[in-house]
Amino acid sequence: MDSDLQRYLDDLVSTARDVLGTDLVGAYAAGSVGLGAYQPGRSDVDVALLNAGPLTEATKRTLVARLRHEALPCPARGLELVVYDRAVAASGTPEPGFEVELNTGAGMEFRCTLDPADRPATDGRFWYGLDRSILHQSGLPLLGPPAGEAFADLAPADLRRLLIEALTWWLALPTPPADQPAPGSEDAVLGACRSLVRHRHGVWLAKVAAGQRLIDAGDPAEVIRQAVAARRGGPPPTGAQARAFQQRVRDEIAG
Fold first, then answer.
1. Chain mean pLDDT for the chain
2. Helices 3-20 & 57-67, crossing angle to 10 degrees?
3. Is the pTM higher than 0.85?
4. Given its phi and psi angles, is residue 54 left (phi above 0), alpha (psi -120 to 50 degrees) or beta?
5. Which residues 6+ apart lie within 8 Å of 131 measured at CB?
6. Residue 28 in contact with residue 16, Cβ under 8 Å?
């Protein structure tokens, strides 16, 4: 692990323990760190904390104040932190179920949500169940038991529904008007690749690895090659190409 990242994660866990005390029962690196695909300068830092029970609003606000970028500078683009009651994490629920959601960093818009009911429906409510499924498989323990014990996976029907919801959400975003390379379209394509690999093969992979797995399996979609190449500095696919691929993936998952 990058030394700056390791030091930051150590400090984050120590700070969280200062606030939560012995009620902090788990801390896990998720996302690109957990999947072994962290890229300094590009990737976010995704962390999930487990508390022994629900948090008071005062404790939530103290935790946010201590962990936001201005108090604990994040060496990456930003920190995406979610805090769960350990009973929720172990339940396998598809609902958001979080205690605190915090996005903070030099390259990230600040977001602080202290109740799932306050999360705008237009921003998507599918992220959390999918993230916990990834944590169940690949969470990197910073504190506490193995992630596979702390986080239950989703039931197959719930997983399928959330994957469809995620792709539907992406498809509803505005498409660039011109038939030109669209910045960010490579992430849309590779995110769809990750969903398709999980649906077909039952495993979560990092985005580029998922795209490469489909290429190696003979998937004919040239847009996947373009998306993988874009991650290495090439031009991204057009918005229309990305949308068509996402639609194809959603149709397959929907059956």
1. 95
2. 150
3. yes
4. beta
5. 30, 31, 46, 48, 82
6. no
